[in-house]
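Appendix B. One record, verbatim.
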Amino acid sequence: MRLILVPALLVLCLCGAVRAFGELKPRVIILTDIAPGNIEPDDMESMVRLMSYADQLEIEALITTIGWNCDPYPTEWADSLYRVIDAYGQDVPNLMKRSKQKRFMSPKKEQGKQKIGYWPSPEYLLSRVAMGSQHAGIGRIGKDNDTQGSNLIIRLVDEPDPRPIWVCCWGGGNTLAQAIWRVKQERTPMQLRQFLNRLRVYTITDQDMVYAMRMNRAYSSHQWMRGEFAGDLLFVWDESAWLTQCELGSKGWQQYAEHVQGHGGLGRAYPTYKWGVEGDTPSFLNVLPNGLHDPDHPEQTGWAGCFSRDICPDSLTTAWTNWQQPQKNISRSYEEYFYPAVINDFTARIAWAEKGSGNRNPIATVNGIKGLEPIGITVRPDGSVTLDASRSSDPDGDVLSFRWWIQKDAGTYPDGVTLDCQGPRATVSVPVESEHAEIHIICEVEDNGTPRLTSYRRIIVSTL
């Protein structure tokens, strides 16, 4: 699509297909070392929050696996996962009202592709539960280590679906490593690359070991995946967002106690924290389709911060990570900035779970373009372009406010760029020395409901 907005503007185009509400959800697989709340409440808390976003993410698998606190993983701990799904079943009739959903799809259709806004049935979620590896480490990977979970991962990746699958590792990722090992044994190198290219991995630190040996990186199957398949597997190693979430959640626990615990079935299943709050949640916040970023570009900040391609803490492999400076401080600044919007979003969803009513997010529309994908604009050096979000709307009729800012650490930000903001409009001016630059601008649209909710749109301005 080509539009002339101002003389200095050459082309306005969409970066990829528009992913509007009602289009397909991102696909996620969860590897969780979920445990009873009196042992390790962290995963159970994150599972409750995940269920509150089941309309935004296609939950392809919920696989139990090992973690820092368990080797072997006790099979009875999986009861905590079933408890959260049961709580979701209590609340889903109310949650469905949020998107005006009247019924569930047939089981056959539900097992296919799901669209944003669709709340899956509890039966669907139960059908996606599987047991993964019960033991940690690369030493366990091999011909006798296949599990229901690793086989399910292979089946899901093999489905004729162009969407990538994000594997969110709340515990150890060796169930995924076993799936990759099996494919490597049975397929050609080209077929293995095709398999890997359809995967994305987000690990909450490295938990493929017990806590006492957490610095022994060579023990972990994560190092094998990063080293062996570095060119084919998008691997994100988070050493910032999970710590920020734990810390800020602990400091602000009163908000969870007042607005989450005890509210609806999900709130009643939400345990009190021990060491930190929801440390695994950033893994799927990174994938939520809220217009803020494209998760396939980890340098673009989202609700889980941002990452740079760099050497990992093992000093041997590379990945998208945020463990060392300056990237850790950069990511931390975004994590802190977004935290109020993130927790407001969660508490609003828990209100829906309890009451079947509440606040809903505004819809950010920039230059008349709806959807969630970044908007791409090309401009001449020494030119300017006006961005207009005045056609944004709110499903509840709330009053909207606007904030514009530049993510200077993304793209190739040149000095001398100015951003003149006037409510729903902002004018971007670039200097004459800005040839072949890429400037990332964020539009935030916030309503005045209770709690206040925020939506986003990323605009990428490229100079010739």
